[in-house]
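Our collaborator T.R. sent over the components below with a one-line note: 'Predict the complex.' Nothing else. No constraints on interfaces, no templates requested, no preferences about which chain binds where. So this is a plain run: every listed entity goes in together, and whatever single assembly comes back becomes the starting point for the next discussion.
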Amino acid sequence: MNNVTDAKHLQQAQELDLSNFWMPFTANKQFKAAPRLFKKAKGMYYTTVDDRQVIDAVAGLWCVNAGHCREEIAHAIANQASEMDYAPTFQMGHPLAFEAASRVAEVMPAGMDRIFFANSGSEAVDSALKIALAYHRARGEGQRTRLIGRERGYHGVGFGGISVGGIVANRKAFSANLIPGVDHMPATLSIEHAAFSRGQPAWGAHLADELERILNLHDPSTVAAVIVEPVAGSAGVLIPPQGYLQRLREICTKHGILLIFDEVITGFGRLGKATASEYFGVTPDLLTMAKAINNAAIPMGAVAAKREIYDTIVNNGPANGIELFHGYTYSAHPVAAAACLAAQDIYEREALFERAAQMAPKFEAAIHDLKGEPYVKDIRNLGLVGGVELESREGQPGTRAYDAFLHCFKNGVMVRFTGDILAFSPPLILDESHIDQIFSTVRAALRAVH
Ligand SMILES: Cc1ncc(COP(=O)(O)O)c(C=O)c1O
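Returned assembly:
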């Protein structure tokens, strides 16, 4: 039975017309000339169409925290799709939407228990930015329209997200149309001062004071919100310096500015706690999440808001009118909500956040053991996130990491690369043998690639 299915998959893959699918964030021409295709996934592993097992060192795209194809989630999705495929949440409701919100609220920092649902990280970010603006307006401070992000920040691909984001490649083609009134703090990474830091770098807390400088320039009373990723993933794994996030929190509080943590990657266990906010002991006002919220089995994103933000917007709205003109057809989609509840059950029952915390020291030791391998110029990590930055080839940035990525893939390990940085964020279910497999393969790749 399996052999027949496998043979069918391979034949289908060989006959596949690759021309129609315009692939996102992909070198389309390069990929289509030599495609890398998966057909199955289970636990820590993918299976390629030619039947090779590939260990997933990035949890898909930083999202499959409980490992692939969890049966409880698959059943929840199938059951819900046949019970009630869709119900609107505009002026109507269904119980799963409320249950999912309660369940997510349980693991959010205290007081951040009002949950707005979206379908992706990008939508969660744009929702959070709009909630911040609506909040200030509702409390009579409608002049607070400015938003502050950070260089190298990644907040998805909506116009709001790329405007507060700080990744040049994601902005430059759209630069004339970015939203106005946005400024950026400097990125916190300094290889010069903090190379090969284990966990949070000791250097760099003073970079938070740049926020004060920017606020003075614009007048703090014009600023609505500051948004940062507590740990940045997509820009190449940037770990906040010790004390940095605490300082941002103090400055925002002092000036009545909302602090938004974009936890699309860090939410649901990546650092060994439910959220990075909990891990760092710093509570934002709004928190965005997506990805692992339902183990990425179906699209879902969300914003957690402090109760006071919800109350301000709702209590200042018209008596029987809509208070926030924002929402998505699929906000709290029943199937996504069912998957969310099933995923949260798994996280709790298997204590996966604690497991991530237990595995983090082993992961740290293994990744830092790559120091001294060819072209490795920095290694950084926190929880189950890690990055290995390579020296770039003269005039060909990104090609060395791409070659290393390809070498790993051919040898059974899927890593992620951004520029010349290799990134790791494995499912939280991994054990020591997986860590060994991942990093011994990466070591061999670094030795093979010139
Ligand atoms: C911090 C952060 N915010 C937002 C996003 C965007 O999420 P999505 O791709 O689901 O729109 C990502 C995606 O990686 C992310 O890492």
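Summary for T.R.: The longest helix spans residues 121-138.
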